[in-house]
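Possible regression after last week's pipeline update?

I re-ran a chain I had predicted before the update to compare outputs. Posting the input and the new output here so someone can diff against the archived version. Not blocking, just want to make sure nothing changed silently.
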Amino acid sequence: MAAEDLPSQFDVVILGTGLTESVIAAACSRVGQSVLHLDRRNYYAGNWASFTFNGLLSWIEQYKNQQEVQITELEQVWRSLIDEGEDAVPLSALDSSISNLEVFCYASEEEEKEEETKTPLTSFQPVNAETVSEETNGDSTEAHDTVTGDDTTASDAKTPNEEHEVSEPKEDQHTSDISEPSQSQEEKESQLSSSPADPPVEVQKKITYQKLVKEGRRFNIDLVSKLMYSRGALVDLLIKSNVSRYAEFKNIGRILTYRNGKVEQVPCSRADVFASKQLTVVEKRMLMKFLTFCLDFEQHPEEYQDYTEKPFREFLKNKKLTENLQHFILHSIAMVTQHTLTEEGLKATQHFLRCLGRYGNTPFLFPLYGLGEIPQCFCRMCAVFGGIYCLRHSVECLVVDKVSNK
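New output (post-update):
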């Protein structure tokens, strides 16, 4: 729609397409009000947006280079256009919610140079008996460090580059190894010669900056990274308003925590607790007993009334829970700090447990294409009921009547 075709009057004019603004726009449009929804940016969702990696780089450059237009200049321009008895209130064109933006990139240039100069072999090099002798002596161990998956044979653990390196034996081994190979060497040689037919072993690849740029459209990055509880005000709003039909949601498959130098899965449900290998049998019973108590802790005030003004961590210690269980409950289930009061921690744990099982094994939902989908869903609903959208447009000035202040 061209600017000259826009209506001259609207019931509601909304600036910005963030989550709050988008919900208000959808609500106003749904009850029949005419809505003009503006955003100075060239994308929806404002500070809730989701970007591809290349889109994020462009967003960073945009905010690093933005400059404030002098408000005094705008005020002088608009004062020359208004009538007597009116006042002009200029609005800033600069997004003050984001400032002091800096980017730090830590990447190993040496690894990237090695990646560029390395020429992979297109075929397997011929293998002779000397290869067998070197493998039996265990001279090459690099493959065992990089191969992922189940245990494999020596032939499966070799990459083409490594076979090329070991196929050049020393001169003092050449005659003795080739002339009279033993029976075991012949069997290993036949096994190695058939290895090209085996499926290639997956090797862990190091992620570099160049690879991130190349694969940047295969993932999205949220400016605001949040998870939604499967039972909550936002999910209820998405269902009741039927806005959820505009997006696809996924259940978070598992919850992980970092402890003692390892990333471990957090047992959430009863099945997870009893299947966990991180917990002892005694810890499993203690955890199940505590989680059962948290589900209806209001019915047993005598259990926690002495700790209502004390941190939740002290209450966990009083329950004789181990350090392992305290870590899981505090940081991965209740998701509170060490200074959170006991009653607040119990409520957080209770809410976590009540959200389990509604859509999956964990209590969290997430939009498939990022959190920026949610504001866009409400914008779509507003547009369906007649709302008009203009990106890269904003309001420069408000004209206010001096008498009525309208």
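Follow-up from reviewer: compared with the archived run. The first helix runs from residue 19 to 30. Marking as no regression found.
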